[in-house]
Amino acid sequence: xxxxxxxxxxxxxxxxxxxxxxxxxxxxxxxxxxxxxxxxxxxxxxxxxxxxxxxxxxxxxxxxxxxxxxxxxxxxxxxxxxxxxxxxxxxxxxxxxxxxxxxxxxxxxxxxxxxxxxxxxxxxxxxxxxxxxxxxxxxxxxxxxxxxxxxxxxxxxxxxxxxxxxxxxxxxxxxxxxxxxxxxxxxxxxxxxxxxxxxxxxxxxxxxxxxxxxxxxxxxxxxxxxxxxxxxxxxxxxxxxxxxxxxxxxxxxxxxxxxxxxxxxxxxxxxxxxxxxxxxxxxxxxxxxxxxxxxxxxxxxxxxxxxxxxxxxxxxxxxxxxxxxxxxxxxxxxxxxxxxxxxxxxxxxxxxxxxxxxxxxxxxxxx
Length: 367
Known about the structure:
Layout: E1 8-15, E2 18-26, H1 41-51, H2 56-71, H3 77-101, H4 103-106, H5 113-116, H6 119-130, H7 148-178, H8 200-205, H9 211-214, H10 227-231, H11 235-244, H12 248-269, E3 287-295, E4 298-307, E5 310-317, H13 320-323, H14 329-334, H15 342-353, E6 359-364
Helix pairs in contact: 1-2, 3-6, 3-7, 3-12, 6-7, 7-12, 11-12, 12-15
């Protein structure tokens, strides 16, 4: 869990009956990773998954990749496959959790707590099913010993969660169609490229005051990251975006599409898992490295520097800072919006981008 609760405050300032300005205030601590400086890499990597209540696996994997790149460690294929399984298990669970926890409120319903309850244990169980000693964050790889029976149970649990999430999604899509909101929030898309912006590592390296992490950009433009960007190349998504741009229908559909495809990928990958003793040594004690992971909500980047074997200049850029940037896809999508229940529509658009913290929405009439 982060040191203090973070949140987003989204204020729609009306100009007549339309949104004339969108203000997004964030209490997120973009420099919280400074507290990781001066520590041993193994200590920090073991700590990372416990610091974040959401996407803890992705945080651990991004940090692990960054440290290994800084230390000159090339993890073997078996470790990379296992890490991909862990990442995609969490992607499925996080998308299912959002649909079961957050989407019912958009329909005036209560969250499905009974379906939510098993999801986090499934993420933890996947780590244990691959790394029985719990050493999945060790640089160079932990002792990898896949448990086929446990993995089969995890897959069954994820499949059940996806089925229940699909039910909520069907009702939400029906609401969007009934209210003719399929294209609400659509703007000219600016989608995150695979692997992130070309200048990502350089910008993080130079971000001493946290200004880039608070408001990232690429040559003045702000990317949208997450399922829509990742699924945009699929034929069905191409058809939806051709009709509705990057509005509500494509964004929610992309999340459901990705949840199903990630589950299928895990089912395929577990067939290729093999054991590995891990424990590759650090090739150097000084260096820098970038780790990039496609987490459920979008591109997650960690950058570290090693100095005499200790971490320094630890910097993390999360997807929420892209999607909820003051000039990002949410703000641009709400500009000029009009019609009934603007707060409700704004909540739909925010939920389609799935911030990793709570948000509140206020509509202020023109003064």
